[in-house]
Design brief:
The complex is a heterotetramer, with two copies of chain A and two copies of chain B. By secondary structure, chain A is an alpha/beta fold. Chain A folds into two domains: 2-94, Beta Barrel (Elongation Factor Tu (Ef-tu), domain 3), CATH 2.40.30; 98-257, Rossmann fold (3-Layer(aba) Sandwich), CATH 3.40.50. Chain A has helices at 74-80, 98-101, 104-107, 121-133, 176-181, 198-211; strands at residues 2-15, 18-24, 36-40, 51-59, 64-70, 87-94, 111-117, 139-144, 160-165, 172-173, 190-195, 214-218, 234-237, 242-245, 252-254. Helix content of chain B is 31%, strand content 19%. Chain B has helices spanning 76-89, 104-114, 143-154, 172-182, 220-233, 247-256, 265-269, 273-288, and strands at 5-7, 10-12, 16-18, 40-42, 59-62, 65-68, 94-99, 122-126, 161-164, 186-189, 193-195, 198-199, 204-205, 212-215, 238-241, 260-263. In chain B, helix 3 (143-154) runs parallel beside helix 4, helix 5 (220-233) packs parallel to helix 6 and helix 6 (247-256) packs across helix 8 (273-288). Chain B is globular. The two termini of chain B are 23 Å apart. The chains are: A alpha/beta, B alpha/beta. The complex binds flavin-adenine dinucleotide (2 copies), flavin mononucleotide (FMN) (2 copies) and FE2/S2 (inorganic) cluster (FES) (2 copies). The site of one flavin-adenine dinucleotide has 23 residues of chain A, from strand 4, strand 5 and helix 1.
């Protein structure tokens, strides 16, 4: 991990309220799927804290990394109006990545189901890409409330992708879990990876448990330091009052480790 | 030009340290900042027993500040010895152990087990913790408790003893004097300010514990005022902190009467900040013909 | 939906007022905001004698806040009668006179001369002022003084008596209870937080008076925490303020236990803010099926 | 006075670190020379307070007003990077104006010397313009540290203008007061108006006193409300501990009223 000032190379809206930001990756360490970075947005004291975003793609040939973010509050609002060429202050890559957490056994399995929802889409696009490059044929399932929120422009045609919308305005009508349940073809020898709203993660975990699949999740939590020093971003793990730091011990965890509430 | 600062028997290489709870036990930030250039590392609070910390979320951003309720999450003194000390032993930087507890005995236990460690250069006693034997009011709000606690710890160690004051009191100078009377080598101020943020959608406190601690630039004027007040009340050194985001902020503290400063929340925004601050302090000394840190004092 | 709020014998048309010292005696903002839509106007502090106020600068901006030391600049009670009362008499809005002093007598004098005025609907007693007879410590830091002062003023007036609490105390609930015991109809919190800003180029306090009062969004979490604490300690209504910049902020105060709120520093940013806040409170009540202000209470 | 949201019609650099901002004046009240307005810059809580700027010109035919501002801190920095079309939140016109303060006797005099320095330049350009439109022939004297700070592009050729620079890099070498002293031709029946750094104002006042001229000054002070309510922006006036509000009783004062320190 390093702190560096980079330049925005591109910033595009990819769905309603969602943006993709590309920037120069100026350090040697190659970021992996599941890892994130933090950005200091603006130079006012409000917003104050650096904002965490997962890496959504990395192109080694051009040293370009990207994130996909949703406009939510004042930090992401400011970020959304930045321009190519503007400086951004990056700290990363942070966190553990899927590759560091997924067991060798799971890695070698045939079926990899990558489930994304909302602001969890970025890291899962990258994970699907990583799996493909490792010779797998991942199934990417993206859940959105409605069609306008589907980031079509950043989807990779070569990856088997299913869109699920709550209102049926695009793809499968229902949640990602509904989709998985209605496709009994997914054999138990699959690995499910998920990132998105907590109910979605819980749903994936439950489904994996019920059907004997492995499950990995990437979590989100309010963060201050992002490097494991402040104990601010913990999640509860199995065992009596045990906490893990999402920023350092995670954000990727074996789903079974987490105490779901 | 001499940037060193003396706290009791300890000489720190420069006045800028990292505030307790924001820098862990030094390891995590090691990749991002040259630890050997820090004036001191003030560790995360240590208690005799391991503490898991509070329910999440533990943090929320406020205008120009953050509110936290970490709940003194720490590995406890035994795991500290096995997991943290080996790393601390590799450092040349001054390491000040921040000590917390729910009873006087808790503080004593930590000192007992750690006083012989050569990697610990001093103690910072966090008296913002509720004293379970005194109805849960923080140690640091009652001058008698502060004096008794300080005197009791003073007998146990020759290492510098720094009492860390809470701003949540009617008259901070009374508490500072009590620490001095008890034998403290220095006081540091401020710890976080009592605050609360409510989620109006969920209609409950964002932080489950309720009232929590405010830090960051929002409270800088509070810290500078406290430092000014305290440094006029006692003759031991004062370490100033609260909302330092640049060298100029630190210089405010030094002019207010501090002999050293700590950077806390500012680290979250810029991990390099402590080094920028000490660089900026040297530059200011150069421009103003200051030779020593003491030259900052006496203008106000 | 009922937005009214009862403080003692007074019914305010809605919970949103303008904080003392930020709205003068109402006249200046008359061009910018429909005064009749305010829940109440809390006037600038009034003292028996005219006060010129402190040396300048009296203000400095801080991160998400401002620091002020106006020094209770006001025309004194006699000029108030001739210069301000005629305008106040034209208003239908509730007018709460903020009263300050250096001795108990000062407060009494103001009440004596103003209690018969029909345009004054109540008093807010500013006890953040230093008591010259008690070594200059603020009235509001000592529960006995607060109870005595309240009881003494209680005997002089049947109008609502609101004691305005300072956050610069160890335990604000003790002070609130003292005000209740003395016969206050309500308490308001918070007054400004002690703070200081130093000009590092001039090497002196930006504000000549030194320590001054911090307000604005930076201190909102402090005000919400105080309101939460106080509303659990007393059974009289609590009026919450500190850093309200939008309806959501005011709703935090109401959920914390306040029955009414005041907008101070926020007016400087947006003179229309009080009306936006009361509009936002109605909208929130609508969405959440609240019928009365009391429906905000009891969630925390 | 009114609060209104306007749009920036133009923003140009006019000298090193100085900008002229033009915007639509959306209310009926015509702003006068010496009056000012306050702008809420950005929508963060830091910078928090509205920032005051004097009106530097007003074109009734196009309803365009302008200010000239110097980039000083974070507020003016943010203002300097705004773009034509952007919204700005204006409160004005505020304060008393020269026309409300200058005595009839002084108004009817022949010689009007308008002295400007630094951030005081805007209002004095407007005052010179106002005097010209009232049939006077004002002498405008602008003091700057050096040539790069002279706002040549906003100067009106039809107004008799003298530039003074401390380093002599343009116009007269010396301060504005040096210039006036070295021109004994200025008869005592003149009125001096000044706005700029305090030492300049004091110098003008002293010169006016010594040579029997009338003097009016426009002051600056930290402001919070800008409308006379908070008592934050006072200046000391003649008499024992007497204060006047710069925002409401000023910013224009007869120089003799002020207690110069
Ligand atoms: C490991 C991690 C990876 C993330 N990856 C992405 C991503 O790829 N794309 C994306 O759109 N979002 C991502 N987020 C969430 C993103 O950080 C927040 O949406 C963003 O910080 C909101 O900032 P804001 O100022 O716009 O909103 P605010 O108004 O400040 O807050 C809106 C919400 O965002 C959350 N938030 C605010 N600050 C932080 C912070 N410092 N840390 C964590 N959460 C915060 C709060 O819980 C709040 O509810 C990630 C968060 C984490 C922890
Ligand atoms: C009546 C009046 C008219 C003015 N007219 C002009 C003008 O025409 N052109 C121009 O360039 N400047 C003018 N100023 C000064 C201008 O308001 C400040 O330069 C500006 O507010 C600085 O804001 P900042 O955030 O960039 O700087 P900051 O970093 O906040 O402060 C820089 C300096 O500006 C002053 N300042 C900051 N905020 C305020 C405030 N709310 N009120 C008054 N002073 C403040 C402070 O004293 C500080 O020393 C005027 C000021 C007043 C009071
Ligand atoms: C996340 C966090 C954890 C903290 N933990 C401790 C602690 O364990 N012991 C302690 O004495 N102070 C603790 N503090 C208080 C800081 O050391 C410091 O006093 C306070 O944050 C003000 O400084 P700042 O504004 O620079 O952060 C903590 C502060 C933060 C933000
Ligand atoms: C410029 C200014 C003047 C004030 N004057 C008074 C006063 O005369 N009496 C008083 O009780 N409080 C006074 N206050 C305190 C405010 O009424 C209020 O308690 C405080 O500012 C917190 O609210 P806010 O953050 O909304 O401003 C003043 C505050 C400011 C900013
Ligand atoms: S954000 Fe500090 S430990 Fe994770
Ligand atoms: S700025 Fe408030 S009175 Fe002038």
């Amino acid at each position: 991990m390093k702190q560096f000032i980079s330049q925005i190379s591109d910033l595009q809206s990819v769905a309603e309220g969602y943006y993709r930001l590309d920037f120069q990756w100026l350090i040697d360490t190659v970021p992996r799927a599941g890892q994130f970075l933090t950005i200091k947005i603006g130079n006012s004291t409000s917003p104050l804290l650096r904002r965490p975003f997962a890496i959504s793609s990395f192109d080694a040939s051009t040293s370009t990394a990207s994130i996909i973010f949703q406009k939510r509050g004042k930090g992401t609002e400011l970020l959304s109006v930045m321009k190519p060429g503007d400086d951004i202050d990056i700290l990363g890559p942070l966190g553990n990545s899927f590759s560091r957490i997924v067991s060798e056994e799971d890695e070698s399995k045939e079926n990899h189901i990558v489930v994304a929802g909302g602001i969890g889409t970025g890291p899962m696009l990258y994970l699907a890409d990583e799996l493909k490059n490792n010779g797998k044929n991942p199934l990417l399932i993206i859940g959105c409330r409605t069609r306008d929120l589907v980031p079509y422009s950043v989807l990779d045609n070569s990856i088997n992708t299913v869109i699920c919308t709550d209102d049926g305005s695009a793809g499968f009508k229902g949640t990602v879990v509904d989709y998985m349940r209605s496709n009994p073809g997914l054999d138990s020898n699959s690995v499910i990876y998920s990132c998105g709203p907590e109910p979605m993660l819980k749903g994936c975990q439950l489904f994996a448990d019920e059907t004997g699949k492995s499950s990995y999740v990437s979590l989100e939590q309010m963060m201050a330091c992002g490097v494991g020093a402040c104990m601010g971003c913990t999640c509860e793990t199995r065992g009596e009052k045990q906490y893990a730091r999402v920023c350092k011990d995670g954000p990727v965890f074996a789903g079974g480790e987490i105490k779901w509430t | 030009m001499d940037l060193t600062v003396k706290i009791g028997s300890l000489t720190m290489s420069n006045p800028v340290g990292t505030a307790s709870g924001t820098f862990g036990f030094g390891e995590e930030y090691g990749e991002l900042i040259d630890l050997s250039q820090l004036g001191a590392i003030y560790t995360k609070a240590l208690t005799p027993e391991p503490r898991p910390g509070n329910a999440v979320p533990r943090l929320v951003e406020t205008p120009s500040g953050i509110l936290n309720s970490i709940g003194l999450a720490n590995p406890g003194v035994d795991r500290f010895m096995s997991e943290k000390v080996p790393f601390l032993e590799t450092l040349k930087t001054s390491v000040i152990l921040n000590v917390s507890g729910s009873t006087e005995d808790d503080y004593r236990k930590v000192l007992e087990k750690t006083d012989s460690l050569s990697c610990i250069d001093g103690y910072e006693i966090n008296i913002s913790c509720p004293n379970v034997k005194h109805g849960g009011l923080a140690f640091g709000t009652d001058p008698r408790q502060v004096e008794t606690l300080t005197a009791s710890l003073r007998k146990m160690t020759d290492k510098p003893l720094i009492l860390k004051l809470t701003p949540n009191v009617t008259d901070i100078s009374v508490i500072a004097k009590a620490a001095e009377a008890g034998g403290a080598d220095a006081v540091s101020c401020i710890n976080t300010v009592r605050g609360m943020v409510i989620d109006t959608r969920k209609r409950k406190s964002v932080i489950p514990a309720g009232i929590a601690g405010l830090s960051g630039p929002a409270v800088r004027p509070v810290g500078v005022a406290a430092t000014y007040t305290v440094s006029r009340a006692v003759s031991i050194p004062v370490i100033g902190l609260g909302g330092i985001m640049c060298a100029d902020d630190a210089i405010q503290y030094l002019l207010a009467g501090a002999s050293a400063v700590q950077v806390g929340t500012g680290l979250f925004v810029d991990p390099q900040l402590p080094l920028k601050v000490s660089g900026g302090i040297s530059a200011y000394m150069n421009e103003n013909g200051f030779e020593k840190i003491i030259d900052f004092h006496g203008f106000l």
